[in-house]
């Protein structure tokens, strides 16, 4: 029996992150067991020092079993905690750690840029036109000189700012935390506004890209009122969490033509229902929550996870611990 239990209870794919984690643990001489929903929880958690929670989907019953077993670290493989039985973990006294946002920052920023380019360059129309032999008659937009509002200037938001600036875009940041003028200049941000001035920024932006964590304060940060505040023809990009957007209001704004398009990797309900009107809109580009799913991201997450497991097994404090003040 090992000291480590790997928990995977989401509907998301187990591979390739599982193999990366096993490889990183093996490099450090650490054995592990894999949780099975078909066996008694208590037997599987007994004697475990660390729980590795892939994706952060642990439920209250898992946390209770971990607390009873004396687990010393609950390691979420991911940054978001909105799927986790967070209140139960924090109340249990089990130290909670997650993967820092820097591990996925490049992947998310690149994917946001891909979605934006796919919308403005009419990717959904290109292949049908090619198959129908309709050449030379595209009607795409250019990004140079356009204004992008990046809502959330954390790790991925900053990486997107660098890339958008490289495309000649004017970049405005919005965040709950003040960003120094030096940091703004370093990433190509013209200015940064507080979240309470969001609607003012939306009125300036040709593109709005979301990079916020999901919590009670950010849920539906883009709602009907926010869409109304946007410029006609604006484009929305979301690679963060689906529930940051009121999806019904988004569909309405797209149907009326007020919004020019959307690039979405995340949705209010996942998997996205096949009867969603978003799937039939030519100016909406969608991907199946793949933004962070790069090989490099998997490797970074696995190495950070295994390093924290080693620290916990050696009796030391883990890194990237979650504090109540962070939530």
Automatic annotation (TrEMBL):
<keyword id="KW-0560">Oxidoreductase</keyword>
<dbReference type="InterPro" id="IPR006140">
    <property type="entry name" value="D-isomer_DH_NAD-bd"/>
</dbReference>
<dbReference type="GO" id="GO:0051287">
    <property type="term" value="F:NAD binding"/>
</dbReference>
<feature type="domain" description="D-isomer specific 2-hydroxyacid dehydrogenase NAD-binding">
    <location>
        <begin position="114"/>
        <end position="291"/>
    </location>
</feature>
<dbReference type="InterPro" id="IPR050223">
    <property type="entry name" value="D-isomer_2-hydroxyacid_DH"/>
</dbReference>
<protein>
    <submittedName>
        <fullName>Unannotated protein</fullName>
    </submittedName>
</protein>
<dbReference type="GO" id="GO:0016618">
    <property type="term" value="F:hydroxypyruvate reductase [NAD(P)H] activity"/>
</dbReference>
<dbReference type="InterPro" id="IPR036291">
    <property type="entry name" value="NAD(P)-bd_dom_sf"/>
</dbReference>
<dbReference type="GO" id="GO:0005829">
    <property type="term" value="C:cytosol"/>
</dbReference>
<dbReference type="InterPro" id="IPR006139">
    <property type="entry name" value="D-isomer_2_OHA_DH_cat_dom"/>
</dbReference>
<dbReference type="Pfam" id="PF02826">
    <property type="entry name" value="2-Hacid_dh_C"/>
</dbReference>
<dbReference type="InterPro" id="IPR029753">
    <property type="entry name" value="D-isomer_DH_CS"/>
</dbReference>
<dbReference type="Pfam" id="PF00389">
    <property type="entry name" value="2-Hacid_dh"/>
</dbReference>
<dbReference type="GO" id="GO:0030267">
    <property type="term" value="F:glyoxylate reductase (NADPH) activity"/>
</dbReference>
<feature type="domain" description="D-isomer specific 2-hydroxyacid dehydrogenase catalytic">
    <location>
        <begin position="67"/>
        <end position="322"/>
    </location>
</feature>
